[in-house]
Specification:
The complex is a heterodimer of chains A (94) and B (258). Chain A is an alpha+beta fold and 94 residues long. Chain A is 18% helix and 24% strand. The model of chain A has no long low-confidence stretch (mean pLDDT 86). The chains are: A alpha+beta (94), B mainly alpha (258).
Chain lengths: 94, 258
């Protein structure tokens, strides 16, 4: 079907303070409808406390053909990585 | 359960049947959309609302069975009563017809439920106020959903505007029944168990008028209001068909368990 509306990307936050994570996408004609659709599709079993909705065409993405020049230079230089000190106890999520 | 005076138990039972039956029949109607809605997202939205309605029906009918105290369960009330014993509004049994009809029916009932449950959440019967407070959160979302569609269909294309205006014109005759009042209501109002019908009616009208005006839709006049009420067990031709489908399994296999 062609008239399902624009595509929107949905980000859900599982608890206060956590990052919003990409959950998927929904179709909707406008932002308010997109928010409600996202609520119904992605949070109906209590998965989220907050929702972000972004028009899919507002996302600028790198292309697969860029992956060489974009990402590989970071892989083979150990001195780029902050790995020469130990992480204090109690620090999580690194 | 807090103490309920014996002389009002029958009235409270009757009133709880109305609350439960409204949600049960509406939930069943909405469930008919499952797999058939215009888009996937709306399919899920309508199924969600249907599930909320069934959950509310379960809570109201469980309390009704406890108040009646006659060895009947909520399932007995749902599956083993006949058409004239159902006390739901005629509005909720009206067929889905199309998306505009479904949304109009839903909007009329949501605007009613939000204000009714808001008041019932202050009831002196704690079991009732608890159920109403929980259901209120759900129906607030339902109203947001249906109101938003009324605005978009009304102020959308010429076709969507005409479809929802037709639905409003056709279903308007069932709205007077929302504010049905008989001796059951009068006694329960007097006891502080339920709100006055007039206060809910006033707030309902405000919600309906503001949304229809914003959606560039016309509010029909009240001259055609239906005088028969589901609250008395008078139903339209549709309820019998709903019950046949809803009750067949339970009646064919009494006492069956999942």
């Amino acid at each position: 079907m062609s008239d399902q509306g624009k595509l929107w990307e949905v980000f859900t936050q599982s608890k206060t303070g956590a990052s919003h994570e990409h959950a998927g996408s929904v179709h909707a004609p406008d932002a308010e409808t997109a928010l409600q659709n996202a609520r119904d599709v992605y949070t109906r079993r209590g998965e989220a406390v907050s929702l972000w909705i972004v028009p899919s065409d507002a996302i600028v993405a790198s292309s697969p053909s860029d992956s060489g020049p974009f990402f590989e230079p970071g892989n083979d230089k150990a001195y780029r990585h902050p790995q020469f000190y130990s992480v204090p106890k109690g620090v999580r999520g690194m | 359960m807090n103490e309920i005076k014996n002389e009002i138990k029958a009235d409270l039972f009757e009133y709880l049947l109305r609350l439960g039956d409204d949600r049960l029949i509406l939930g069943h109607r909405l469930s008919e959309w499952c797999g058939h809605a215009p888009i996937l997202e709306e399919d899920i939205a309508l199924a969600n609302i249907a599930l909320d309605c069934i959950g509310q029906a379960n809570a109201f009918l469980t309390l009704a069975a406890a108040v009646e105290n006659n060895n009947r369960t909520e399932d007995d009330l749902a599956y083993f009563r006949d058409e004239t014993e159902f006390k739901n509004l005629q509005l909720v049994e009206q067929p889905n017809i199309d998306f505009a009809y479904t949304i109009t029916r839903q909007f009329f009932i949501d605007a009613f439920a939000v204000h009714l449950y808001d008041e019932l959440s202050k009831s002196i019967v704690e079991d009732l106020s608890g159920i109403a407070a929980k259901a209120l959160k759900e129906v607030k979302y339902h109203l947001r959903h249906s109101r938003q569609w009324v605005l978009r269909l009304g102020d959308g294309t010429e076709e969507s505007h005409n479809k929802i205006q037709n639905a409003i014109n056709d279903l308007w005759m069932f709205t007077g029944e929302l504010f049905f009042e008989n001796d059951v209501d009068k006694k329960l109002i007097q006891e502080g168990i339920i709100p006055s019908t007039k206060s809910v009616e006033q707030k309902w009208k405000e919600v309906i008028e503001s949304a229809l005006t914003e959606a560039t839709l016309k509010i029909p006049d009240d001259s055609n209001t239906n005088l028969r009420s589901g609250r008395n067990g008078d139903h339209t031709e549709y309820l019998g068909h709903i019950l046949a489908e809803m009750q067949i399994v339970a009646r064919s296999h009494p006492g069956a368990k999942w």
